[in-house]
Amino acid sequence: MTATLTRDTLPGEIPEDVVLSLHGVTKEYPTTPPVRALRGVDLVVNAGELIGVVGPSGSGKSTLLHIMGTLDRPTAGEVTVAGHAVSTLADKQLSALRSRHIGFVFQQFHLLSGYTALDNVADGLLYTGMGLADRRDLALQELQRVGLGHRLDHVATKLSGGERQRVAVARALVGSPSIVLADEPTGNLDSKNSDAIVDLIEEISASGVTIVVITHNREIAEAFPRSVSLRDGRIEHDSEAG
Amino acid sequence: MAKPLIPSKLHAVDAARTASVGLRTRKMRAALSALGIMIGIAAMVGVLGLSESSKSDLLAQLDRLGTNLLTVQAGSGIGIGSGELPVEAASMISRIGPVETTSTISAVDAANVYRTDLIPSGQTGGITVQAVDTNLLDTLAGSVSDGRFIDAATGSYPTTVLGSVAAERLGISVVNGTQQIWLGDQWFTVIGILDEFELNPDLDRAALVGLDSAATYLDDDNVPTSVLVRVDPDFVDEVTTVLAATANPQNPEEVEVDRPSDALEAKEAADDAFTALFLGLGAVALLVGGVGIANVMVISVLERRSEIGLRRALGATKRHVAVQFLGEALLLSAVGGVGGVILGWGVTTIYANIKGWDVLVPPLAIGGGMAAALLIGAIAGLYPAIRAAKLSPTEALRSA
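YS: structure for the whole thing
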């Protein structure tokens, strides 16, 4: 793909073997009574892996995703993303980490309604300090990669649900992050679009991108090479571990 | 070991783009909230512009009429005189060094003016008869609207020149040389109509006759009731102090000395007071506009929590988020400020043109107006921006 030329010029890091690791991660919300969303989670994500994290609602999936994505800090335990120990980083550094190493895909897509598909994807690079023309170049390549080369100038609100999620996937990929975290990416889609997105994720994974998909759909998770099931804030089963 | 992190970065041009997202996607709301600021700024620019334009007009008027005209009048009433100046008052005054010209006015109290001899004697129309010098127009900076003024020749015949109001009341608008009015039991021929006197409106309601003709036909003794004095502009104050004693050495306390241009200057001072009042009102409007922007920004932050969450996920720092919302408030107020300056300028231009003034909008009003708008915007945007920045990313994303 032509993207490699510009990709190599991107500031960032070559992913090492372990992209993300959680060690004894606990998250407690200071409510009354306190809610323990995660209770000592250990998880290692290697470069190039495609992992499905599955669990019923309330099992701590979203909290896990937020902690993996450095949007939240654990109450206890150690999180390392792309070789950086999260506990040693200030808020500003976490932002830097997210801007270059982590791509997010959300259930609600979170596209900016007034923006075109192209600019929504280009915004994935907004906080890297790259110029607008370069951001759009990369966004164009990424939209073509997810099969939306013909929808570049469509405003987000004019796109179908499936198309919106593809735009969101393209936005997560455009910065060539070390890891892509997808939070219920098929949650707002019908089964046809849902299948298409799962196919797209597998396709992207095949190109070497590390992806963690969080879902309540056991079927989707178990179709991935590695699936981790979560219950009551603990890892119940990890297909890798046996 | 991992490479050091490269900090998140948002270029100024991108910051401006993100700050304008809210304006572009919610145009109506942006327009309405900018309107508040616009009205405030328009009021301030308009008030300053109008005050400056009217002041320049007033100064031009003063310049044209001169501030060196003094009127010497006989006081009338118990203890302040008989209403008459000594006959030789004018010639005495003209001997004061810096006096340039003098012009005598003598009220002919006994005579009334009627359109014809058939009008009942009570219906005088409030028109007075004044016997005047032939140089009155030069001294008062007055002008003839139609016909001509009294000169040495016509001044000794029964001719009259009408003040603008008097002419209107007598139903005479143009002079054809044959119109006569019934003045002091005689027919007087109208030879001219005057424009309004800006410095001596009393004469607008008078029928003016020559001093000689007043003496001959109206039995007037030509005792001056007032003397108009033009003096060297550098010595106005000095002349003012000696005028009373010169005009009436025996009873200087019975003489009133006025400077008609003082009235115009007083008007300017009164205008200044109004300007201050209206500026205050403009400031209140601006403040209300600022509160409007703060309100809209607070709502905007609440509505756009998921966008804030997304931006934090994309790598925005707290500062980037704060800059975005502060920038939006500044942009709103700048739009209002520019609109206000244009509106204020427009109002000033239209009003000044109607009034026939020069359009003068002081640069300070424009600069100050814009600065005030931006300051208000910054203050109004600060709290919402800080709130947006403090929002935790997970909470922001959850609210979608």
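YS: worth flagging: The first strand of chain B starts at residue 69 and ends at 74.
IM: good catch. Also The two ends of chain B are 37 Å apart (CA to CA).
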